[in-house]
Specification:
Layout: E1 6-9, E2 12-15, E3 20-32, E4 61-62, H1 64-78, H2 87-94, E5 107-109, E6 112-113, E7 119-127, E8 134-145, E9 150-160, H3 171-184, E10 201-212, H4 216-223, H5 236-239, E11 253-261, E12 264-265, E13 278-279, E14 289-290, H6 292-311, H7 315-323, E15 341-343, E16 346-347, E17 359-364, E18 371-380, E19 382-383, E20 386-393, H8 400-418, E21 435-444, E22 447-453, E23 458-461, H9 464-476
Helix pairs in contact: 1-3, 2-3, 6-7, 6-8, 8-9
Length: 485
C-alpha cells in the first residue's frame, strides 16, 4: 500500500498509482577499504564460504538487498527516534512487511557487478573455552573480495507527493540523503563479519539526476532515460538538496591503542605457498595484518575469564551483552544478538631493522630425545613492528551500569594486551604473540582519556577514578532492565 486512491470499473477494484513529485536516479562508485565477505550460500567449492559471483560474467556480485538492509539498519540503529525521524518514517522509505497492509519501498537498488582487485583466503576456527584448543568440526575457510575492488551503484528514488501517515513531502529524501552520506563517509560496512573489520567501504563520484514528474519534459526524460545535466553539489546531501541532516547517535565508547610486537606474531595464512609451511597473514597488497576475527577470539576468551572471576554467575551474560550471543548456547532459549563491539582490521607497520626470517622447527620424540620422523616444518612469522588497535562499542544501552561494565572490560583487556599477558595468534606456548603498549586513548561520555607508559608503570589523564569505577561496575552488574537493542 503506497497510498493511491481506490478505483472501480466493471466490478473490478484497483489502486491508482500515487502522485509523484519527482524521480531521482542516483549513481556512485563504491570502493572497498577492507576485504569483504559476500557469501553465495553454496556449501560446495574450493572453500567453505565462497564469494558471490554472477553466473555468466563471473564478476563479484553485490545484491541490492544487501545495500538496502545495511542502509535501513544504520538508520534504525543510529538515528534518534524522535517525532520527525522515527521507525515509521524509515519503513515508509524502505518498505514494511506487514501481514495486514504491506508497504512497498520508494527506493529501488540495483544489483551491482564489481571489478575485483583480487581475492583473499582466510582460515577460521572456533576455540574451545576450557581447553583452549580448536573445537571439533569447527574449522572453516572463506573467500574474501580484496580491498580496492569497486562496484558501480545505481539507486532509483520515487518521491511521493503524499507519503501518508503524517510524513511531509521531502522527509523521505532527507532520510535517504542521511543514509547515503553515511555510506559515502565509510560509516556503513557491508557483507558478513562487518563487526570484525570486514566490508568497510566508501562511495565517490556521485551523480544525481532529477526528473520532475509534474512536467511533460521530466516524464519524457525519465521514459527515454535521458540523464542530461546532473544535480549540482559537492556532496550527496547537496545534490539531493538536503539541509541540516540529523546527526547520528554517538558511539558508547571508542578505545584506540598503539601496540608493539615484542618478539614475533604468527596468524596463519590460508593457502599460501612459498618457502615456509606456515606464513603470517597478509592482505592482498602484501602487508602483514592483524585480523579482526583473530583479535575478537582472543579478547572474548580473556573477557569471559575476567567476567567469571569478577561477577561469577552473571559473567557469561555480561560477555554475551558485549560480544553477542553464541549460536550454540542453549539453542531455542536464547535470542540471537549481534556483537555490540566492533573490532577493526589492522595493518602492521614492520620494523625495517628486522629482516624477514624463516625458522625451521622439528618435533622431538619425548622418549628418545631425538627428532620425530617426518615432523620437520618451517614457519615465517612477523618479527617486530607495531599496529593500531581500535575497539568501538557502537550500540547504545539505556542502562548506565551496563555501559560502565563494558568500558571496564575493555580497560582490563587493554591492560592484558599492554603487559604481554594476553598473546595473539598461534604458537603462544613458545613465546609468540606477546605485545607491549605504546599509547592509548579512550573516548567515553564526552571525556577523552590518554594512557601512556612511564618507567614505573602508566599515566592516565584525566580522572583515573572514573575509569576505576567502570572496572568496579563489572562486579555489581546484573542482567535485566530495559535496554536499547
Amino acid at each position: 500500500d503506497n497510498g493511491g486512491d481506490m478505483s472501480q470499473q466493471d466490478g473490478l477494484y484497483w489502486k491508482q498509482a500515487p502522485p509523484l513529485i519527482a524521480r531521482y536516479e542516483i549513481r556512485g562508485t563504491l570502493e572497498l577499504t577492507s576485504p569483504m565477505s559476500l557469501s553465495n550460500g553454496d556449501s560446495e567449492g574450493i572453500t567453505d564460504i565462497l564469494l558471490r559471483r554472477d553466473l555468466l560474467s563471473r564478476q563479484p556480485q553485490l545484491p541490492g538487498s544487501t545495500l538496502a538492509g545495511a542502509l535501513a539498519g544504520y538508520l534504525n540503529a543510529y538515528l534518534p527516534h524522535g517525532a520527525a525521524m522515527n521507525r515509521s518514517l524509515i519503513e515508509r522509505l524502505f518498505g514494511e512487511n506487514n501481514p495486514v497492509a504491506s508497504q512497498q519501498s520508494w527506493l529501488f537498488i540495483e544489483d551491482s557487478l564489481g571489478t575485483e582487485r583480487g581475492v583473499e583466503f582466510r582460515d577460521g576456527v572456533s576455540i574451545e573455552d576450557s581447553l583452549r584448543v580448536a573445537a571439533d568440526g569447527k574449522k572453516y575457510d572463506t573467500e574474501l573480495l580484496a580491498a580496492g575492488s569497486t562496484f558501480p551503484l545505481v539507486f532509483s528514488f520515487w518521491e511521493p507527493a503524499n507519503p501518508g501517515q503524517g510524513v511531509q513531502p521531502g522527509e523521505l529524501r532527507h532520510l535517504l540523503g542521511i543514509a547515503l552520506q553515511a555510506l559515502a563517509e565509510g560509516h556503513i560496512p557491508l557483507g558478513g563479519r562487518k563487526r570484525r573489520g570486514l566490508g568497510e567501504c566508501q562511495v565517490t563520484n556521485w551523480q544525481v539526476y532529477r526528473y520532475d514528474m509534474a512536467q511533460p519534459a521530466g516524464l519524457l526524460g525519465w521514459l527515454e532515460q535521458d540523464r542530461g545535466q546532473p544535480q549540482k553539489g559537492g556532496t550527496i546531501l547537496e545534490m539531493l538538496e538536503v539541509d541540516a541532516p540529523v546527526k547520528p547517535q554517538a558511539d558508547l565508547c571508542r578505545l584506540t591503542a598503539t601496540l608493539q610486537i615484542v618478539d614475533s606474531l604468527l596468524i596463519h595464512a590460508a593457502g599460501v605457498g612459498g618457502e615456509a609451511d606456515m606464513v603470517h597473514l597478509r592482505n592482498h597488497a602484501g602487508q602483514p595484518i592483524v585480523s579482526g576475527t583473530s583479535l575478537a577470539g582472543a579478547l572474548r576468551a580473556r573477557a569471559r575469564r575476567i567476567a567469571r572471576l569478577l561477577n561469577g554467575q552473571h559473567g557469561d551474560a555480561l560477555i554475551n551483552e558485549l560480544f553477542g550471543q553464541e549460536m550454540d548456547e542453549e539453542p531455542g532459549k536464547q535470542k540471537p544478538r549481534a556483537s555490540r563491539l566492533w573490532i577493526s582490521e589492522n595493518v602492521i607497520q614492520p620494523n625495517s631493522a628486522i629482516p624477514e626470517q624463516v625458522q625451521s622447527r622439528v618435533k622431538l620424540d619425548r622418549f628418545t630425545g631425538g627428532s620425530f620422523p617426518g615432523a620437520l616444518f618451517d614457519q615465517q612469522a612477523q618479527w617486530g613492528g607495531q599496529f593500531g588497535l581500535e575497539l568501538t562499542v557502537r550500540r547504545q544501552t539505556a542502562r548506565d551500569e551496563l555501559a560502565q561494565a563494558h568500558v571496564g572490560l575493555l580497560l582490563l583487556l587493554l591492560k592484558d594486551l599492554w603487559t604481554g599477558d594476553l598473546p595473539l595468534g598461534g604458537e603462544a606456548s613458545v613465546g609468540r604473540g606477546r605485545l607491549a603498549g605504546l599509547s592509548a586513548t579512550l573516548q567515553w561520555g564526552g571525556t577523552q582519556w590518554e594512557i601512556a607508559p612511564t618507567r614505573t608503570g602508566i599515566t592516565i589523564t584525566p580522572d583515573p577514578a572514573r575509569l576505576q569505577a567502570a572496572v568496579d561496575a563489572i562486579r555489581s552488574w546484573t542482567p535485566g532492565g530495559a535496554q536499547d537493542e
